[in-house]
Amino acid sequence: MSESKCRIVEVNDDGLQRAIQNYLLRKRHNLGIDCELLNPLEEHNHMAADNMTIEDIVNGIHSRDENKEVTATHAACKILTRNELYPPIDILINADVVPKLVEFLSRVNNPGLQLNSTLALTNIVSGTSDQTKAVVSAGAVPGLLSLLDSPHPVVAEIAIRALGNIAIDRPEHRDNVIEHGFIGKLSALIKPETSAKFLRNVTWALLSLCCAVDNPLTVPAVRQLLPALAHLIKNNDEEILADACWVLADISKNSDERTQEVVDAGVVPRLVTLLNHNEEAVTEGALFAISTIYNEEYPDWNTAVINAVAIPRLMLLLDSPHEVVAVKAASTVVNIAYEPKFRDQLIEQGFVKKLLDLIKPNISVTLLRMVTSTLGSFSSFLVSPALMPTVRQLLPALAHLINNNDEEILSGACWALFWLTDDPNKRIQEVVDAGVIPRLVSLLEHNEWDVIKPALLTIRSIVTESDTNVDSVLAAGAWPLLAKLLVRPEIHIVQWAAEIASTIAVNHVTRPLVDVTRKGNLKCQKEAAWDITNITLGGNADALSYQFSAIASLCTLLKGKKTYIILEVLDCLALIFEVAEKIDELEKFSLHAKKCGGLDCIMALKSNENTEIRRKSLAILERYFSTHLSFEDKSARSTSGFWMIAPCN
What is the rounded CA–CA span in Å between residue 410 and residue 341? Predict the structure, then answer.
């Protein structure tokens, strides 16, 4: 028999459903109640009950003799509790005992029989879903609900447990007990004179209504619950507090409407206070409730949480010896950090230092993963130059974390570094100065995509910042690793690796080629012009900045006498102008060509004795400098049209 029966399917809802399940598994209800408290049996009846067989029990329950019914029901109770692993539930169900037990619930003149019947039914509904269905189908719900008004608290107490187990079994059974007025009945039992022991059962029953993963409580049901919960979380009993907090956590999840009801009930300040309760179950329940309430899309909810002084209480929980609590507190603080005004409070109150202090040799992998993930999320917020001190505070820890071997930690640390380099400002240099480039480059050959991706993106940001960074990436052995990435099946990896390779090529190939066009001998100038043409074919915008500076020296080469060099340069200029046109920079490039005398050189070539030179120069003029052509030039357009070396994507 499972005394805290609850069948929950795990869902990825920030661990909330798993946390509720774990809490219920830790929470066991002791059903060992002395049945003789209400209706003492004669000694021979005790002995008779102890010695009864299943057949005797069935016959006694069906006997229509109240004395035999009492003895047999008592024996049924004992046999169901005695054999916890294999109670004979199905045997009793198949013997049609359940309808008789339900009938006994109405014997108001025999509270002992009521108690034993309720205990027997409670044990049956602690079994399988089919066994619970047999009890519900026999009409037990109204009978059990009627016992909540019993003058004998122990009868009402066991009836509450039976109804709780029925509600836990499946959503339709839960809805059945609610429709019969279970919530209202429970609320009526919450009185100043009600004992803590009894209230524990009431609160557990409320929690039992929240076990249906895919069928949460309706808003009207939540409205019914909340006055009772608002009262119960003011209690001082740890078990009552814990159950009430978990109920509030559950009804707040995945529903803005239900969460609004919770906030309107005024329970947030008390939940925040309970974050620092001495009992772990209370703290954990309050923490999960606060985390489900906090939502960046609803400022009023968040203000209610912050105004209750949640930030310092959450920060204290980072030191909790209970890993689940520390992890959840960290993730909740990150959600708070999404709002700039609260983020500043977090930084001022030392959240970053508190988080970094958790990184110790004996920290668990689970907690270190959460710390790393939190640092990653927090890093994405640090865009203001005023937060540079915080960036510097984070970097030593991140430089340490990227040397970990855990894939999740590596990924989180790399993402944090990416966020810090995602904006071209001084942060990139701070990251580089932290000495992370060699390790980032080595991670390019990691087995996991989740590690490669942020490492690659971070390197991409770094190489675009300065030539020195490019040199550092190359010195760390990036070339062969990039070459391997270029043949991987993942299209994004290939794309980003190609961008990095292109940027490196621009810095270490294109710029020297431009110098060769100015100073090299004729053969070298021709080769340099050809290489610039090939690089231009890629349409790389970064490379184009160097092509811009190459225009003047290329145009100078047009004054030479070597036909093959002139043709090569015209090809190169045509492609430079074409790429400039694609990125809406044509006016800038054509004006520069005019200022450096390039237009005059091209104009002069349209009367060159070489037919190919005349055709190519006229094509450039027609497409990019048409306003400078005479009427005769326009009338004498090249019959072969404009040529293309290769298409530019």
Answer: 30
* Whether 572 contacts 516, CB under 8 Å: no
Q: What is the pLDDT of residue 548?
A: 66
Q: Is 418 helix (H, G, I), strand (E, B) or coil?
A: helix
The Cα 466–Cα 517 span in angstroms is 24
Query: What is the dihedral sign for C-alpha 585, 586, 589, 591?
Result: negative
- Distance of alpha carbon 446 from alpha carbon 454, whole angstroms: 12
Distance CA 363, CA 355 (A): 12
Q: CA 198 to CA 217: how far, in whole Å?
A: 24
Identify whether the C-beta of residue 5 lies closer than 8 Å to the C-beta of residue 169. Answer: yes
Helix residue ranges per DSSP H, 402-488: 407-421, 426-433, 437-442, 449-463, 467-475, 478-485
For the range 517-520, what are the long-range contacts, defined as Cβ-Cβ under 8 Å and sequence gap of 24 or more? Answer: 517/550, 517/553, 517/554, 517/557, 518/553, 518/556
Q: Are 69 and 61 in contact (CB under 8 A)?
A: yes
Query: How many other β-carbons are positioned within 10 Å of the β-carbon of residue 42?
Result: 10
Burial degree of 44 (CB within 10 A; 0-12, 13-18, 19+): exposed
Q: Are 624 and 586 in contact (CB under 8 A)?
A: yes
Q: For each of the domains in the chain, give its residue range(s) and CATH number, in order of start.
A: 355-485 (1.25.10.10), 499-635 (1.25.10.10)
Q: What is the mean pLDDT of residues 548-561?
A: 76
Please state, in angstroms and rounded to a whole number, the distance separating the CA atoms of residues 156 and 486.
72
Structure tokens belonging to residue 54: 């299943």
Residue 3: how many CA atoms within 13 Å on its side-chain side?
A: 13
pLDDT digits (tens, 9 = 90+) for 324-383: 888 888 888 888 888 887 888 888 888 889 889 989 888 889 889 988 988 888 888 887
Q: C-alpha 376: how far from its chain's center? A: 13
Contacts of 547 (CB under 8 A, 6+ apart): 510, 514, 532, 535, 536, 576, 579
Residue 361, judged by CB atoms within 10 A of its CB (0-12, 13-18, 19+), counts as exposed
Sign of CA dihedral 552, 557, 560, 566: negative
Give the sign of the dihedral formed by CA 546, CA 551, CA 556, CA 562: positive
Whole-model pTM? 0.69
For residues 443-458, give the mean pLDDT. 93
**At residue 596, what are phi and psi to the nearest 5 degrees?**
-90, 10
Residue 508 is predicted with a pLDDT of: 58
Q: What is the largest CA-CA distance in the chain?
A: 132
